[in-house]
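Technical note accompanying the year-one report. For the benefit of new consortium partners, we illustrate the data format agreed upon in the data management plan: each record pairs a sequence with a structure-token string. No post-processing was applied to the example shown here.
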Amino acid sequence: MPPVLDFWFDFASTYSYPAAVRIGRLATEAGVQVRFRPFLLGPIFKAQGWDTSPFNLYPAKGRHMWRDLERLCEDLGLPFCRPEPFPQNSLLAARVALAGMGQGLGQGLGQGLGQGWGQGWGEAFSVAVYRAQFAEGRRIDEPATLVAILSGLNVDAKAALDRAQSDDNKLRLRAETEEAQRLGVFGAPTFTTAGGELFWGNDRLEQALRWAKRGS
């Protein structure tokens, strides 16, 4: 079995956009299996006394983040559009993504996404949600956006949404968020190895893959 790296993300997370786009290719090249782990930052922020993103709470930090993200996307050749409003409610998108992890509701992962991804459509859906929000300026808190993404991946949108809103899937997302808290996750993107190492931030992705490969 190849080494495993867990990729923890919330769709409202800005720096998770480039991480989600980059991780499939880099993991394939490194010979590392990546597990996409959608969770919710809201409960974690609430535990710290925050009711919104720290980028909103601290304006100077927020201004720097937006300009930094613009530069980063330009360097990577990624389109970028600042979403409005920010942050957007990521609950439904997270539920849909989790429903698609390892679930065969669709016929594939979409062109160019087959190699290095999981057996379901959740990973490809996750990348598409990030592109919709941060490259195209679309509202990911609107079901119509998610339906369009699912249809573009040849996934039965009604079946996917029904599964996403099922009681067991809701409990599963809650359990994932609680597991993230247990591991000490405090932001996104976060990467955790089988050996318990935690790496925070898009700029730690390559390092996290190296540590995963060495079994730490």
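Partners are asked to follow this layout when depositing records. The chain has one domain: 4-213.
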